[in-house]
Design brief:
The chain is built from 14 helices and 19 strands. The chain has 456 residues and is of the alpha/beta class. The protein folds into 3 domains: 121 residues, 2-Layer Sandwich (Heat Shock Protein 90); 104 residues; 184 residues, TIM Barrel (Alpha-Beta Barrel), CATH 3.20.20. Strands 1, 2, 3, 4, 5, 6 and 10 form a 7-stranded mixed sheet that branches. Strands 12, 13, 14, 17, 18 and 19 form a 6-stranded parallel sheet that branches. Bound molecules: zinc ion. The site of zinc ion (ZN) has 5 residues, from strand 12.
């Protein structure tokens, strides 16, 4: 149908008009090409040599643009999409399909075009006699190397982990940066965030931008851009990497580039305590994380710098699930006993490795053995670190007995307790697995140490 109609128009145009149209088209074509051509470095690979200007099929009924990547499978998906949209429009017209006043346009732009991924945005407008103009958008992200369209469900290692991690990130970010934009009710709805709340997504060089459905973050669709490295461990490895190329910046309502402070819903009038775990990450840390997650509780983990890189997955998971990470020095050194140079290494290298692995810079430092003096306190201040001690010492390292530890935790729990435990002892972990649900049953909110300090 497109082909037949395109030729009528030509007869009515003079040669000059045609020359004009051709030169304008060329100019526009070049502009579009420049706008979407990828940056040279890290640009297209063998499969995506060049991207052409969007192909235009102009007819008096339809004006259809779609890009060509010289990538057989992706190109045919795009072409099929455009044809399907036209067919659906024609079908919707029924017997009026021959009325030349009815029109449809499909415009496209490349939100991202890099060496591996491309996101295409289509804007479709339908003009039907007697009806208001109907406009709709669709986004498609392609893996050009794998030659396929990426669906939302393809992105994540586990859907349930992904919705928890994204929900926590959104919740914490909005609590920190837009606490008055949403009511308490909207916030509590947000803590039940699921992947079904996502309408669409797009890739940028470093970002995953989610279109969040109306009703979740206000009445309209809202765009939330999240740095993909913050979803490390949540996204499948092939989708977590940066993809250097050309981006058209999307005007996202919220741009999350740093990990926000943990901010689970806390009732300041209810009792609360902080479970803190030192000397990890270790063999049993994931069990503690599982127990916290099962019970929608949060904890604080004071990690030893030299152990972080070897257990990067656990450390990422710790923050992804809304827990707090604190600094517990690089080598578990007693800080008052080391040289200034060694002190800097103990503290600053640990900050750095945690940031490198988890994208989060701790604000709390638990000095090993609780050993601190005024000089060190001043130094920690220059590093934006606050000393974080405890008020309940379970001495779990001394008594490796799960039942005894459980009893000790339960008996010492008070509103405002900061309970010191070690996630490197299986007996402590077993005690905690039992204590967490029990403490919640007794009405305790299990919060991070920074949260506790905010309220107590
Ligand atoms: Zn320690």
């Amino acid at each position: 149908m497109r082909r037949t109609i395109v030729y009528h128009a030509k007869k009515h145009l003079s040669l000059i008009a045609w020359m004009l149209i051709i030169s304008v088209t060329l100019l526009v074509g070049i502009c579009v090409y420049l706008a979407i051509a990828p940056a040279k470095s890290g640009g297209p690979t063998a499969t995506t040599k060049v991207v052409s200007p969007p192909v235009s099929v102009v007819a008096n009924h339809y004006n259809i643009d779609y890009p060509i990547f010289y990538n057989t499978k992706v190109d045919s998906l795009l072409k099929d999409y455009a044809s399907d949209q036209v067919a659906a429009f024609v079908n919707s017209l029924g017997k009026d399909r021959y009325d030349p006043r009815n029109r449809m346009t499909l415009e496209c732009s490349l939100l991202h075009y890099g060496s591996q991924f491309a996101t295409v945005l289509f804007i479709q407008r339908e003009y039907v006699v007697g009806s208001a103009v109907k406009a709709s958008n669709a986004q498609m992200t392609f893996d050009l190397k794998a030659q396929k369209k990426i669906e939302l469900k393809d992105l994540f290692v586990s859907d349930s982990d992904a919705q928890l991690a994204i929900g926590v990130l959104l919740y914490d970010y909005l609590k920190q940066y837009a606490p008055h934009e949403f009511s308490q009710e909207q916030f509590s709805k947000l803590s039940q965030f699921t992947l079904a709340d996502i309408q669409d997504f797009s890739f940028g060089n470093e970002t995953l931008t989610l279109s969040v459905k109306p009703g979740v973050l206000g009445d309209k669709t809202r765009l939330v851009a999240i740095k993909r490295s913050l979803l490390d461990g949540v996204l499948k490895p092939e989708y977590g990497k940066n993809d250097k190329g050309k981006d058209i910046p999307v005007a996202a309502s919220y741009v999350i580039t740093e990990r926000p402070r943990p901010a689970n819903q806390i009732d300041p009038n209810q009792k609360m305590l902080a479970l803190t775990f030192d000397d990890g990450p270790g063999n049993y840390t994931d069990r503690v994380l599982d127990a916290l997650k099962r019970n929608r509780a949060r904890g604080t983990f004071f990690v030893i710098g030299r152990q972080v890189a070897g257990r990067a997955g656990t450390v990422k998971r710790t923050v992804n699930e809304g827990n707090e990470i604190g600094n517990h020095s690089w080598n578990h050194a007693s800080l008052p006993l080391v040289s200034r140079e060694q002190l800097k290494h103990e503290v600053e290298d640990t900050q750095k490795v945690i940031y490198d692995v988890a994208g989060y810079t701790p604000v709390l430092m638990r000095p090993p053995y609780g050993a601190i003096n005024p000089d060190i306190a001043v130094y920690l201040q220059t590093q934006h670190l606050q000393p974080a001690l405890w008020n309940v010492d379970t001495e779990d390292w001394r008594y490796p007995d799960a039942q005894a530890m459980y009893d000790r935790v339960m008996q010492s729990a008070r509103d405002g307790s900061v309970i010191l435990l070690h996630d490197i002892h299986p007996t402590s972990v077993e005690a905690v697995e039992r204590a967490i649900p029990e403490l919640i049953k007794q009405g305790y909110q299990l919060v991070t140490m920074s949260q506790l300090e905010q309220y107590r």
